[in-house]
Amino acid sequence: MAKEKGTKEDPWDLKTPPGTSAYTMYKDESHTTPILVCTVGKTILHYDWRCINDLHSMLKKHGDWMELGSADEQKPAKEGTVEAWGRSSKNPVGGWYGLKKGLRGRFGMYIPPLMEELGLVELEHNPKGNKMKAK
Fold this sequence. Notes:
Elements: E1 12-15, E2 22-28, E3 35-40, E4 43-48, H1 51-62, E5 66-67, H2 82-85, H3 107-117, E6 121-123, E7 131-134
Antiparallel strand pairs: 1-2, 2-3, 3-4, 5-7, 6-7
């Protein structure tokens, strides 16, 4: 029986939308609610696992391409972007999907490639200004 991809032992190997940085992600189900563990070099970020379905639903309702707008937690997110939605009080969790204070941003950089890998979205791979839309 084949092991499921996306575990700590067999994480997803991903690249940022411009293709400039490699990172890994896996689903950690040892928490009360499952989380995504994202490892970029020596930095480890955590995101609420719900973000995958929640973002996919929002993109389906949106019905068109949406700019990613990735930004660090300390920087404001451009309005109307995936990043802004990932920290908005109007999203289903009422705020940040990122779970590690100080490292809650970059939602628009690291979540979209995983969603593309899972076959949920179309994603652009330009040097800057990438967009995504639900399949």
